[in-house]
Write a structure and sequence with these properties.
The chain contains 8 helices and 19 strands. It is α+β, with helices and mostly antiparallel strands. The strands form 4 sheets. Strands 1-4-5-7-8-11-12 form a 7-stranded mixed beta sheet, with no helix packed on it.
Amino acid sequence: MGSEEKIVEQAIEWMLLLEQGELTTSERSRFEHWKAADPRHATAYANLAQSVRQFDVPRQVGAAPDILRNTLQQKSKRRKALKQIAALAGLAVGAGVLLDRLTPLNTLSADLHTATGQRQRATLADGSILVLNARSAIDHLIRPDLRQVRLLAGELQIQVAPRGTLPFSIQTVHGSVSATAGILTMSLQALRTDVVAAEAAALIATREGARAELAAGRHTWFDADTIAQPRPNEGSEGAWVDGYFTASDTTLAEVVAALRPYRKGILRLDPAVAQLRISGAFPLDDSDRALSALASALPVSVTYVSPYWVSISTRS
């Protein structure tokens, strides 16, 4: 790590400490001494503070307010957010942050993983056909007596090859879904797992022991404790496999969430417009065209701060 990057790392640590409030006299003295020790220190802290105000860190990922509060209360998550802001603002910190927007760094050791904007199709040893969405990752274990995939990040669709009564199990941190045939689509969210069953039924088992059957042609979600009431499929849940997100009276927040894995940077959504609703088919492989279509159809502005920072907000 170069000296400039170390300085910005130190500025981030001081900002995290200052955000906690109620600094002791000794801590405040050390902070002032650090700023005075080198002109670059004061400059780095001032630039970081300005970048935080400009990019609005508490809302920069466009997540729901309750999720943001829970996330940013964790110091490690807050540090990561500040590093991302610093990197995108051109400060000398965290080259890995921008690299992570190309290929998620925490899933590089997975058996199969995809980069930003990449989908991947694979045939597993049992003949099942798997498609990974962008920024997704799995581990898999296929044996004569066991067929198992663990979804580590993102979204997958699998066409389960029939092997008699031997089930195919897809696991997440929230539980598992198993089927002996048919097509399953699963998406790992921060607080839940979404699952869509097509052509054949599936069995859902949560981490805490709840179990339910999901009939073919229906979808639901589950977390570690609960399985939601299933609902009929709309027929477009797997459109991402063909490179589209199909919205049917869908919130803007959901459309933006589908576009994010296809952009090499931050796509910020102002919560004030997140619940606007829209219908249409949006190309995932040309997210700029999708954003243009959103701006034409909704009362929103799409502002390109840089190619790596795009903001969607209320139209002036």
